[in-house]
Specification:
By secondary structure, the protein is α/β, with parallel strands linked by helices. It has helices at residues 46-51, 62-82, 100-109, 148-151, 168-175, 184-190, 201-207, 238-252, 276-286, 301-308, 310-313, 326-335, 363-367, 389-403, 409-420, 426-437; strands at 30-31, 40-41, 90-94, 119-124, 132-134, 152-155, 163-167, 178-181, 210-211, 263-267, 292-296, 318-321, 338-341, 355-358, 375-376. The protein folds into two domains: 6-215 and 425-437, 3-Layer(aba) Sandwich (Rossmann fold), CATH 3.40.50.2000; 238-420, Rossmann fold (3-Layer(aba) Sandwich). It contains 16 helices and 15 strands. Strand 14, helix 13 (363-367) and strand 15 form a beta-alpha-beta unit. The chain is globular and about 70 Å long. InterPro entries: GS/SS (IPR011835), Starch_synth_cat_dom (IPR013534). GO terms for molecular function: alpha-1,4-glucan glucosyltransferase (UDP-glucose donor) activity.
Length: 464
């Protein structure tokens, strides 16, 4: 597995980091319904109004630009919390973009008697993005030399350059009070090997890490109210609705409309992490079966071009759509019989109305049980520079095995099991609450039992 620095992080159409990628959970600075600890939710764009500075200053130095974004964001976190006149707080820092937060807390605020009892929980969503920069750039962070060892890091990868650097995620891990990630199995993987921990395995092992499976917004992803699908359904009506939804999907992408043909879907970024390159090589190995496949995603241009060739190669059996298309993503989720997830590594995953066929990694292991809620393909080679023939064969073999269950009572039972899952935030939120309460911040109280907790829905989130 290789790592990606901030320059490779997903960006919007203007080439700017999106608010989600800036390490913030939600969008508006407001009180959360999440009662424990009185959490504040910070929008990085609000930092503009609070501090009168540009979040994306024009600079020829990419590190200075990122530091400006990050320090504005960290300052917004502190200012937002102080607006509630509370000192007893827990900051939840997400990924390398907010890794300076615990450092500034210790170096700037606590020595002045501010936030003396505050704690920081650091959550890793994708260890491949760490924020690695030249070692000399530590001076630009305006931190005392005593923090230098927390950032000091020997980069063993040749791309973009090998050698001594600073690593923001490493510092965030070491300087925070608790380290978490988004699934138990992903937590195990991060400390298992150098490759899966992307050279931070020893650091994470030293700090300790807890994995809690992400929930999903069950209000936004509710098949009874989804405006993008023609037939609404629940657990009791899914088998009646599925054929209608499949026919609507086939018609939408101009495939032969036939409810008896099993349909496989893929929705995701066209990146090596997601195994898109493995999938493209595997399709010829199973496309001769009685099956149709619909692949939706955007990403690397060579992969997009390969995707667009699917219809030419297999006109009655495959469609590749290299566009960002929310309605089609919803139609695939509802109308496909299977969802293919060939990720080399995958921190978290949730799927409901279609049967997942997944690589055995990260959250895919925690949420997909072989033969009960889906099919496992085994672990894939995490080396992103090559496509392992064994992984191609694993996809072909498992897809063929899954197709063998289609139309049988076993397949119907698996769909029922998928629909019966509780994928809401209720369980995960309770576990998060327990972790945060155990940090021992004064006046922390449990939330109200039975109160639903879910993230704010965003219309423009369609792919993992």
């Amino acid at each position: 597995m290789s790592y990606c620095d901030g320059a490779d992080a997903p960006r919007d159409k203007r080439g700017q980091l999106t608010p989600w990628d800036a390490g913030v959970w939600l969008w508006k600075s407001q009180e959360s319904s999440c009662r424990p600890l009185g959490q504040q939710l910070v929008d990085p764009l609000d930092a503009l109004r609070w501090f009168g500075e540009k979040l994306h200053p024009k600079s020829t130095d990419p590190l200075l630009e990122r530091i400006s974004r990050t320090t504005n964001l960290d300052s917004a976190c502190y200012a937002s919390s102080r607006s509630t006149k509370r000192e007893e707080v827990v900051f939840i820092a997400n990924d390398w973009h907010t890794a300076l937060l615990p450092c500034y807390l210790k170096a700037i605020y606590q020595p002045k008697g501010i936030y003396k009892s505050a704690k920081v929980a650091f959550c890793i969503h994708n260890v491949a993005y760490q924020g690695r920069f030249a070692f000399a750039d530590f001076a630009l962070l305006n931190l005392p030399d005593e923090f230098k060892s927390s950032f000091d890091f020997i980069d063993g990868y040749y791309k973009p350059v090998k050698g001594r650097k600073i690593n923001w995620m490493k510092a965030g891990i070491l300087e925070s009070d608790k380290v978490l990630t988004v699934s138990p199995y992903y937590a195990e993987e991060l400390v298992s090997t150098v490759e899966k921990g992307v050279e931070l395995d020893n650091i994470i092992r030293k700090a300790g890490i807890l994995g809690i499976v992400n929930g999903m917004d069950v209000q936004e992803w509710n098949p009874l109210t989804d405006k993008y699908i023609a037939a609404k359904y629940d657990a009791s009506t899914v088998t009646d609705a599925k054929p209608l939804l499949k026919e609507a999907l086939q018609a939408e992408v101009v495939l032969p409309v036939d409810r008896d043909i099993p349909v496989i879907g893929f929705i995701g970024r066209l990146e090596v992490q997601k195994g898109s390159d493995i999938l493209i090589e595997a399709i010829p190995h199973f496309i001769k079966e009685n099956v149709q496949i619909i692949v939706l995603g955007t990403g690397k241009k060579p992969m997009e071009k390969q995707l667009e060739q699917l219809e030419i190669k297999y006109p009655d059996k495959a469609r590749g759509v290299a566009k960002f298309n929310v309605p089609l993503a919803r139609m695939i989720t509802a109308g496909a019989d299977f969802m293919l997830v060939p990720s080399r590594f995958e921190p978290s995953f949730s799927c409901m109305p279609c049967v997942p066929i997944v690589a055995s990694t990260g959250g895919l292991v925690d949420t997909v049980k072989e033969g009960f809620t889906g099919f496992q393909m085994g672990g894939f080679n995490v080396e992103c520079e090559v496509v392992d023939p064994a992984d191609v064969q694993a996809i072909a073999t498992t897809v063929t095995r899954a197709l063998g269950t289609y139309g049988t009572p076993a397949f119907t039972e698996i769909i029922g099991n998928c629909m019966a899952q509780d994928l809401s935030w209720k369980g995960p939120a309770k576990k998060w609450e327990e972790v945060l309460l155990n940090l021992g911040v004064a006046d922390s109280e449990p939330g109200i039992d039975g109160e639903e907790i879910a993230p704010l829905a965003k219309e423009n989130i369609a792919t993992p």
